[in-house]
């Protein structure tokens, strides 16, 4: 807000300054202001015309720039708004000697800043009901949605703005960076510390985690590009979950059945088979539709829970306490619980289902699910590190007479 002006003097300012504004279309690239949902609220409370406040302008735009109104159009909109001022106030403002302002450039600058704020805040986020069907994924998130951009640049710029996907993007973007760091550290250890076999086996897990988190944040970033792009990256997102599950099983099965070739190969083949089925199902176009949310949660929980079979095998052959102490069973159960609780939250969409519109930006179910997936991946890394450490301190299978 401009200092020294009445709170609602922007309408007046818009009229006074609109003459100095050229026809050149306004470009968001020139805006230094990040989109801010709160600002939208303040602008809406400023009684702007609906077209400005509802954030749906991109869809309606006829301007060449593709970004909605040019400055002259904005000037006339603001003038129209000014006409709505109460007559007393209007007179009051008319009575002000504009020469007193004596700062036409400042006036133009403030008007431009206001326009930028309108652009930055109102034109990038929209109410759920204004979205096209393919962007209406969650009916309980009411405001702060991005509108279709048809531009990868605009999508990637939105990473630094506040909207319904900001939390989803950053939870898995930061998670991916963390796993890239861990993987780089692990794989660059000298072979005297970590041998190539360990690096190869752990790489399956690192690849799964990095691809899953990578596909996820990229999907959430470009989801609003267009229906076609959103759908394609949505499938990659689901594939990523299957890849993380397969990648998580590899080191676990490798070290749990270290000297037992037959169960090791059988269970590895089983998880590759089930993981492939999950990927094939993910490629089905209807799989991403909102009504299949419980089915999606079910497919991936079932894929993860297939681990119960090798876990039971281990408990039967080696005993429960051995499984807890030497096969990180406790950590694996914790990981499974995190995935399952995350998937249930994802499927039932709590808390936004209970308080629609209250979790539009932060703490919505999908963000909670993302955090649970991340936590589960870290727990799993810890678990497989423990199993590997234990197994490697035991020494060679042949020397111990453990080969089947
Ligand atoms: Zn997600």
Compile the SSE list and pairings.
Blueprint: H1 10-18, H2 37-44, H3 50-53, H4 57-60, H5 71-83, H6 87-95, H7 98-101, H8 104-122, E1 125-126, E2 145-146, H9 152-157, H10 166-187, H11 196-222, H12 227-256, H13 261-282, H14 293-305, H15 308-318, H16 320-326, H17 329-348, H18 365-394, H19 397-400
Antiparallel strand pairs: 1-2
Residues 168, 216, 220, 366, 370 line the site of zinc ion.
Polypeptide structure, described:
The chain is an all-alpha fold and 404 residues long. The chain is 65% helix and 1% strand. It has helices at residues 10-18, 37-44, 50-53, 57-60, 71-83, 87-95, 98-101, 104-122, 152-157, 166-187, 196-222, 227-256, 261-282, 293-305, 308-318, 320-326, 329-348, 365-394, 397-400, and strands spanning 125-126, 145-146. The protein has a two-stranded antiparallel ribbon with strand order 1-2. Helix 10 packs parallel to helix 18, helix 11 (196-222) packs antiparallel against helix 18 and helix 15 crosses helix 16 (320-326).
Descriptive key words:
mainly alpha, binds zinc ion, 65% helix, 404 residues
Kindly summarize this structure in a few lines.
The protein has 404 residues and is mainly alpha-helical.
Q: Could you say which overall geometry the principal axes of the C-alpha atoms support? A: elongated
Question: Which cofactor or ligand species appear?
Answer: zinc ion
Find the count of extended strands (DSSP E, 2+ residues): 2
Largest sheet strand order: 1-2
**SSE class:** mainly alpha
Percent of residues in helices: 55-70%
